[in-house]
Specification:
Layout: E1 8-14, H1 18-28, E2 34-41, H2 48-61, E3 69-71, H3 85-88, H4 110-120, E4 126-130, H5 135-143, E5 151-157, H6 173-177, H7 179-186, E6 192-195, H8 197-200, H9 207-214, H10 219-239, H11 249-256, E7 261-266, E8 268-270, E9 281-283, E10 295-301, H12 303-314
Bound molecules: beta-D-ribofuranose and calcium ion (CA).
Residues 15, 17, 20, 45, 131-132, 248 line the site of calcium ion.
């Protein structure tokens, strides 16, 4: 008999955010494939006091009060925090009422947890999944450069090329908030898989897709439907689209079913200087420079397969 593959060890670095919440739920629902070692919160969509709280709310919703949640950076490395309450609401998880979390926040700082985890696991066995600004990851790389070659892979949501920007005309939110951190990560040499707006804007909810969540008849299904309903209104008004992009779960879906996605292995550099285009991911999609490829930059997905995976997995949760 072929022995079952051990689940892949991951750390999710996040700023929940309704779409972050769905990403965390998808990971926690996929225990055969993914071993979530911890969840590290960062300031982004809303301030850190809310993102770490929201991460605990989501773990409890998934029936995982044993999951460890760590708080990291409360601001970008060199800049004032820019938040996105206009998309996610005042709490970051606006929409349905949510209970206060009972589980405790871990005392250890998220940056130290990332460093310690990478040092205590064999090199090449821990994957980082950042779905917010890259501050915690960059701070860990700066504080303990010896961890960088130990990271198996980074699968992140951030950036845009053909879709350009969502927070400025040129920049996507996660990269814009902390471009210096993004630059450290993109120059780190760690193999990167990047889910830019180019792909996440194809991962659109629809009435039928949201109703499939609701029809699960579980608390998770009801919450995910209500969160996506809330989150939808902003993008539908802005883009005139049928639904809203479920950005962050693309990272976890990629780990579960990479064949749902396609992209190009190219060079991606981060603009940190220009006032006009700060945070832009300058992606050499057409390979017009001799800059060495540093990222698998995803451009397309099988949206039907993506939502089928989400529905199948989320239905396993309470
Ligand atoms: C990204 O920004 C946040 O608002 C979302 O959670 C996602 O990570 C999309 O630009
Ligand atoms: Ca996010």
């Amino acid at each position: 008999m072929v022995p079952a593959m051990a689940p892949r060890k991951i750390i999710i670095d996040t700023d929940p955010g309704q779409d972050d919440a769905v990403a965390i739920l998808l990971a926690l629902a996929s225990r055969e494939e993914l071993d979530v070692l911890g969840i590290t919160a960062v300031a982004g969509n809303v301030p850190l006091a809310l993102t770490q709280r929201n991460a605990r709310i989501v773990c409890e919703l998934a029936g995982r009060p044993d999951m460890r949640v760590f708080a990291g950076a409360d601001a970008p490395i060199h800049r004032a925090l820019v938040t996105a309450e206009h998309v996610h609401g005042k709490t970051g998880l606006d929409g349905p009422p949510v209970p206060d979390p009972d589980m405790d926040l871990q005392a250890q700082n998220a940056v130290d947890f990332i460093i310690e985890t990478l040092m205590e696991h064999p090199p090449g066995t821990v994957t980082l999944v950042p779905i917010g600004p890259l501050t915690n990851i960059a701070l860990a790389f700066e504080k303990a450069p010896e961890i960088v070659p130990r990271v198996a892979e980074i699968v992140l949501m951030g950036g845009a090329y053909f879709e350009v920007g969502n927070i400025t005309p040129a920049a996507e939110f996660n990269i814009y908030v902390d471009p210096e951190a993004a630059e450290i990560v993109f120059k780190s040499g760690v193999p990167l898989v990047v889910m830019p707006l180019d792909v996440t804007h194809k991962a659109l909810t629809s009435r039928a897709r949201v109703e499939a969540f609701r029809a699960m008849g579980t608390e998770t299904g009801r919450m995910v439907a209500a969160w996506t309903d809330f989150f939808e209104r902003f993008d539908m008004e802005k883009y005139g689209s049928e639904g809203a992009p479920l950005h962050d779960p693309c990272t976890i879906a990629y780990l579960l079913k990479p064949d749902l996605f396609s992209g190009r292995h190219i060079n991606v550099a981060i603009e940190t200087q220009s006032d006009l285009t700060r945070g832009m991911t300058v992606a050499d999609w057409w390979r017009v420079t001799d800059r060495a490829p540093n990222a698998m930059f995803i451009g397309d997905l099988d949206a039907e397969g993506y939502f089928a995976l989400l529905t199948e997995r989320l239905a396993r949760l309470p």
